[in-house]
Design the sequence.
């Protein structure tokens, strides 16, 4: 039954339960569970992120259009997920080593609204890919430069995008004085950084909720499935967040 296949996939994503354990629970062969998850997981990934009952965003272009139409602020950040090390002798083995954590990982760009609701998770890239490079490869610069005015908050890893997007990407302020800065400047600079950090902290909360899914804590399976896993988890989380907000507004 499709319901059983869906349930097995949801349990696998949420709790990271192995296929062997799921096979015992459902009384089937392990290969049946593997086949079921392989069929259902891409369907969940293609659903997109829910922003209202019956309305889903499936691409970065749709997210930018949605934010621009409502005049909302978006927040972006990159998140890394540890994966298995590629086999010895593979020419791309070092591509998965993150420059930040020095561990084998894949990276996804997460975009939330100002409330921390997940609106988009990109397909994954190897861990060595810089945050700003991934944003450019996803077409964020062109979408912001040619589309509606949207303010996107980002951390220092995206510095440089502001100039390319007409100030639409807002990053922490640069230091004007590198040496012998006056006391008033240090205080003002620190206050500006704290203000920016407090505005973009919601994306960190969104990523934390996303990584409550055990499948994203550390992935021991095939790296080829990571894009579907991340996007399926994001779609499920956004649906839950939207339902929670709807109930709160009705209360």
Sequence:
């Amino acid at each position: 039954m499709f319901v059983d296949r869906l349930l097995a996939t949801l349990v696998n994503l949420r709790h990271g339960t192995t296929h062997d354990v799921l096979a015992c629970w459902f009384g089937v062969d392990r290969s049946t569970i593997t086949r079921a998850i392989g069929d259902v997981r891409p369907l969940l990934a293609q659903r997109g992120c829910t922003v209202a009952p019956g309305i889903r965003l499936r691409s970065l272009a749709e997210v930018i259009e949605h934010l621009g139409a409502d005049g909302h602020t978006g927040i972006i950040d990159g998140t890394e997920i540890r994966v298995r090390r590629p086999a010895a002798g593979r020419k791309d083995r070092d591509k998965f080593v993150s420059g930040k954590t020095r561990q084998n990982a894949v990276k996804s760009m997460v975009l939330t609204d100002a409330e921390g609701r997940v609106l988009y998770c990109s397909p994954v890239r190897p861990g060595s890919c810089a945050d700003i490079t991934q944003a450019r490869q996803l077409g964020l610069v062109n979408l912001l430069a040619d589309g509606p005015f949207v303010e996107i908050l980002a951390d220092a890893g995206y510095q440089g995008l502001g100039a390319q997007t007409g100030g639409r990407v807002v990053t922490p302020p640069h230091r004007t004085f590198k040496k012998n800065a006056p006391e008033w400047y240090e205080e003002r600079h620190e206050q500006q950084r704290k203000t920016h950090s407090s505005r973009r902290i919601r994306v960190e909360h969104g990523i934390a909720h996303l990584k409550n899914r055990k499948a994203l804590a550390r992935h021991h399976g095939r790296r080829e499935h990571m894009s579907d896993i991340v996007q399926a988890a994001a779609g499920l989380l956004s649906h839950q967040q939207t339902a929670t907000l709807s109930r709160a507004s009705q209360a």
Remarks:
- The CA atoms of residues 43 and 232 lie 8 Å apart.
